[in-house]
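re: the backbone from monday

yeah here it is again, tokenized this time
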């Protein structure tokens, strides 16, 4: 029953948050295509079926605090903002200044009042507002889930993150990862780690 309610909420979010409003004007005719679409700077707005599946695994709840890493066009940020409601909060992080402005402007025009956008600095994630009930990452880490993001996850929190060509769905207990599931066969742009990190 709970999964059916979540699925219904995600379907409703997709109906309310129209993807075309988060695409560049010359690509909006592709909004209904179930494929990743370029948004400039080597980045894409993700495939709708993949986003829907990631949101199902993430299971965001009303009132939660969510970190959205790799916010890009702002579409997933707006979907999360709708799912957590006005009592929730979404913190969006983007490393490319012009894309951060693009996503922020898109969300502002769409009326998202519970979102903050941040330009990524030399840290991974956004530790100053941690802990987060949920963390969604829309870029692929190389070989391992970064400890910095696990540290920013609240007790009993969940994170969904691509690693290489899989998506990992993990649950944290009070201090560490309690469970992890791997879903194979996905492709994402790479997660750019801070300078000096072992992933560089």
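seq for it, each position gets an aa:
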């Amino acid at each position: 029953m709970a999964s059916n309610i979540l699925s219904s909420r995600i379907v409703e979010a997709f109906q309310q948050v129209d993807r075309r409003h988060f695409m560049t004007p010359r690509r909006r005719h592709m909004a209904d295509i179930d494929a990743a679409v370029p948004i400039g700077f080597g980045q894409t707005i993700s495939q709708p079926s993949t986003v829907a599946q990631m949101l199902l695994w993430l299971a965001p709840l009303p009132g939660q605090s969510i970190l959205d890493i790799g916010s890009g066009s702002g579409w997933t940020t707006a979907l999360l903002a709708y799912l957590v409601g006005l009592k929730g909060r979404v913190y969006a992080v983007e490393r490319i200044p012009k894309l951060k402005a693009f996503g922020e402007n898109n969300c502002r025009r769409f009326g998202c009042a519970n979102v903050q956008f941040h330009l990524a600095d030399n840290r991974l994630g956004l530790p100053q507002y941690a802990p987060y009930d949920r963390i969604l990452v829309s870029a692929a880490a190389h070989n391992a889930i970064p400890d910095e993001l696990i540290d920013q996850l609240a007790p009993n929190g969940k994170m969904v993150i691509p690693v290489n060509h899989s998506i990992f769905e993990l649950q944290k207990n009070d201090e560490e990862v309690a469970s992890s599931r791997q879903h194979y066969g996905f492709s994402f742009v790479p997660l750019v780690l801070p300078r000096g990190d072992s992933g560089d």
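The chain has one domain: 2-184. The longest strand covers residues 153-163.
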